[in-house]
Specification:
The complex is a heterodimer of chains A (691) and B (154). By secondary structure, chain A is of the alpha+beta class. Chain A is built from 15 helices and 30 strands. In chain A, the strands form eight sheets. A seven-stranded mixed beta sheet of chain A has the order 3-5-1-12-9-10-11, with helices on both faces. With 154 residues, chain B is of the alpha+beta class. The longest helix of chain B is centred in the C-terminal third of the chain and has 14 residues. Classes of the chains: A alpha+beta (691), B alpha+beta (154).
């Protein structure tokens, strides 16, 4: 049978329908910070249901790490914050009804810049920080009460003062990374309905159990009174994590007594979730021979009006910032900061792209200062098997040097260095982390695998089916894989951070062992990876194993126009063991192409708190015509190695490899994306320096 | 108003509004593979063939399709060489953009039966895949090329 994706038979959350359902539309704040004075729904046509502030008074606040969000805001904290909602018989009816709701606002002072917001006298986006009991429990959130800093993560290892005193050369540079939009082809979509006191939500989500927990909290239900059923997603990249549209749909459904479907319009995606814009300062010191002596790094992650997973993003931005190098003295401060911009959250790479951009550019600045080849400088300092990272953990299964050498070879580094650049990264996997799976013997040679891993195009379900088939000794066609449904599958942390194939693969081994040991018909397997970091010192286990990759880039710059053209891009990723080769290749290629977009042109542009470019014409994503002439990659394997997730690893090394390639032409860029305007400005700066 | 056109080889008569886009009418007819992502004609997810030409169905007023022949991916039958090549080359991830992509490739191959890699990249520049499956999409087009005689778009 031909794949449903090529015949038009594939169905997504957007296609959900239920008897008697209403279509919802959200009424959103036009101001970045404003108190809602009154909502007047008198002009809404008869037959529509309007969700007003009074309808949500009994609902509790939510937030996966900090409980800072309400189903409807009585104080709008960003442009696009939901203040009311409507349900109507058709999408068009809902759009018209939403436009006829009049809201009175009292504007409040807004803070729109992350560095301004971090100052002690900045207007407060939230009056206090109430930690979430569950989602945040696994890492020590450290909000600074009375400020906009909702998490401050530190690493203190060695003594950076003496490390810099030992250095012969020091570079100190500040870098920025723009916000980006996930832009999944399918927008956020869900359907909510109530039956006999139970809430059922069908949705495209990467996090069914987190969502169930959040919904239960909001509506004061037991988790078992909420059922989340996942539909395949038309892309996500982090956008469809935690709670997005589901609570509003459920609240309208509760009022209407009817099922409610909510599909976001394209422009609403830009006020729902973006990637954290960030400012990252990197100070590196080294001896004349290139030996690194110290690194001091500060990261400011702009999480927008709601924390969402921002504290976790900032922490990963921080603990991955020193990179795969032996550095005896390290100090990292990562701040997650509220502003009155739309919320930022999980995005493929989870903060690590931002700090990687800064550090890998800084390593090249240091190489230039020292007069050492950038490849040699990196190879000299790379972490090797058994080395200690600044968190105190011992690195194992280490392949950074191999990745880097392959990346260099892939762009002909040794033949000619003009317009060529390199970068190498480490990237953490969610730790601690738990996964569970059940395997049922159908008795007729077929097996059912029940787990909460969700499908967004990454091919995890097929990979898990292949692993199950191998363990059970049957053909993959004999494995059935029902849709993730919190009523029917065991608990799983979430389908994020490139963890599913690795974690589920191991849980599956347990489940098959259990099935065999008990004689069936049901086997259960669960694995738990312990770990976590002390937020004060950064000591502990950041990641039970590390994702490793390097990229080489070759570029050409038109010095008249500032146009930057990527000619070659080659990435080597350590895979450990490849389970599903075509899907693994697609993950690498897709990550590299997304990285190319972030490197060259993707940027959420804000003006007075408004998103200026909330459409796919003004916010461009890579098209086939944007590809470099050569875009290649390798999946490195090792005998007996663990599976290493691949969902994001090839993204973070791409922008700095390109930036370093541009720097090899004497054009120094510190800000992403590297637009023609920025390239032209850097060419002008170079001319001034030479003059 | 009354709308009549042919969809995937069958005559269709249906009611629609004068200001309605073709995509919405096709969706109502059950052809949900015609997806809307950008709504402004830049992403290609809603690509259909109208008298053999690629058109963004999100931008074409339904009455303008009056009397014309519309093809959606459902009309290719499932064993069309482009569909087969896409499956063979694993030229998709989430699959949301694939129906429009497949139709755009059929049109491309009709115009240029032996396209170079550059021809393919430029020819598909109006079809976006956020999963970034382009490398394998180019491979799929190269696989499909030469596998069909005559018209590709039917």
């Amino acid at each position: 049978m031909t794949d449903a994706r090529v015949t038009g038979a594939a169905r997504y959350a957007e296609d959900l329908e239920a008897e008697g359902m209403l279509h919802a539309r959200i009424v959103r704040s036009p101001y970045p910070h404003a108190r809602v004075v009154a909502v007047d729904a008198s002009a809404v046509p008869d037959g529509c249901v309007v969700l007003l502030p009074d309808d949500v008074r009994d609902l509790r606040r939510y937030g996966i790490q900090i409980r800072d969000q309400s189903v409807l805001a009585d104080r709008a904290r960003h442009v696009g914050d939901p203040v009311a909602a409507v349900g109507a018989e058709s999408p068009r009816g809902a759009e018209e009804a939403a436009a006829s709701v009049f809201v009175d606002y009292e504007e409040l002072p807004a803070v729109l810049d992350v560095l301004d917001a971090a100052k002690s006298d900045a207007p407060l986006v939230h009056d206090g920080h109430e930690l979430a009991s569950t989602g945040a429990a696994y890492f020590g959130l450290r909000p600074r009460q009375g400020t906009n800093v909702c998490h401050h993560f530190r690493i203190r290892d060695g003594n950076v003062e003496s490390g810099f005193a030992d250095a012969d050369a020091v570079v100190d540079q500040t870098f920025t990374v723009a916000g980006a939009q996930h832009a999944p082809m399918e927008p956020h979509a869900c359907l909510a309905r109530w039956a006999e006191g139970r809430l059922e939500v069908l949705t495209g989500t990467q996090t069914p159990f987190n969502l169930r927990e959040e919904l239960a909290g909001i509506f004061a239900l037991e988790p078992g009174q909420v059922r989340v059923v996942c539909r395949p997603m038309g892309g996500s990249f982090g956008a469809k994590t935690f709670l997005r549209t589901e609570a509003i749909a459920a609240a309208i459904a509760r009022k209407a007594g009817r099922p409610v479907k909510l599909v976001l319009a394209r422009d609403e995606e830009w006020v729902t979730l973006n990637r954290h814009p960030a400012v990252v300062r990197v100070k590196l010191g080294a001896r004349t021979d290139g030996t690194l002596t110290a690194a001091e790094i500060e990261c400011w992650a702009d999480t927008g009006a709601y924390a969402d997973s921002g504290p976790g993003v900032a922490q990963k931005m921080g603990f991955a910032a020193p990179g795969p190098y032996r550095i005896p003295n390290v100090a990292v401060d990562a701040y997650c900061v509220y502003t009155n911009l739309p919320p930022n959250g999980a995005f493929r790479g989870y903060g690590q792209m931002q700090s990687t951009w800064a550090r890998e550019r800084a390593v090249d600045l240091l190489a230039e200062r020292l007069g050492i080849d950038p490849l040699e400088l990196r190879l000299k300092n790379l972490l090797r098997e058994g080395d200690r990272y600044c968190t105190g953990e011992t690195m194992h299964d280490v392949h950074y040097a191999e990745c880097l050498e392959r990346a260099a070879a892939g762009i002909g580094w040794h033949e000619d260095r003009r317009g060529k650049g390199l970068s190498v990264i480490l990237k953490g996997m969610q730790t601690p982390s738990r996964a569970a799976v059940a395997v049922e013997d159908g008795g007729d040679g077929t097996f059912v695998v029940r787990c909460a891993t969700t499908e967004m195009g990454q091919g995890a379900i097929h990979a898990i089916a292949l692993l199950a088939a191998e363990l059970l000794g049957v053909e993959p066609e004999r494995i059935r894989f029902p849709a993730p449904d919190t009523d029917a599958v065991p608990y799983d942390t979430r389908t994020t951070s490139s963890r599913s194939t690795y974690m589920m693969g191991r849980a599956l081994e347990e489940a098959v062992r259990d099935l065999r040991a008990t004689g069936g018909p049901r086997g259960y397997g669960e694995v738990f990876n312990a770990g976590g970091l002390d937020p004060e010192t950064g000591g502990g286990i950041a990641s039970t194993h590390w994702h490793q990759a390097a990229t080489g880039a070759e570029v050409r710059v038109d010095e008249e126009t500032g146009k930057l053209e990527v000619l070659r891009l080659h990435t080597a990723v350590y895979a450990g063991r490849v389970v599903n080769r075509p899907a693994a290749e697609l993950q690498n290629e897709g990550s590299m192409i997304m990285g190319l977009g972030s490197a060259l042109f993707e940027e959420v542009v804000y003006g007075d708190g408004q998103v200026v470019n909330p459409n796919l014409s003004d916010y461009a994503i890579p098209s086939p015509a944007d590809l470099p002439a050569q875009l290649t990659h390798e999946l490195l394997e090792a005998d007996g190695a663990e599976i290493h997730g691949l969902g994001e690893t090839a993204l973070p090394p791409v922008p700095p490899a390109i930036g370093n390639a541009v720097a090899a032409l004497g054009i120094e860029l510190f800000d992403l994306p590297m637009t023609p305007e920025r390239v032209s400005a850097a060419i002008d700066r170079r001319a001034e320096v030479r003059a | 108003m009354r709308l009549s056109f042919s969809v995937n080889g069958e005559g269709v008569e249906t009611e629609g509004r004068a200001d309605e886009m073709l995509r919405d009418v096709l969706n109502r007819l059950g052809l949900v593979s015609v997806r809307e992502t950008c709504g402004i004609g830049v992403c290609g997810a809603c690509t259909v063939l109208v008298d053999g030409e690629t058109v963004s169905a999100c931008l074409l007023l339904a009455p303008l399709a009056e009397g014309r022949e519309i093809t959606t991916v459902e009309g290719l039958g499932g064993d069309h060489p482009v569909q087969v090549a896409f499956a063979e080359a694993h030229a998709f991830q989430c699959g949301y953009c694939t129906p429009g992509m497949v139709l755009a490739v059929a049109r491309l191959l009709e115009e240029n039966p032996q396209p170079t890699e550059d021809d393919i990249r430029l020819g598909l520049a109006g079809n976006l895949c956020r999963c970034g499956s382009y490398v394998k999409i180019v491979e799929a087009v190269q696989l499909a090329a030469g596998r069909k005689e005559g018209a590709w778009t039917s």
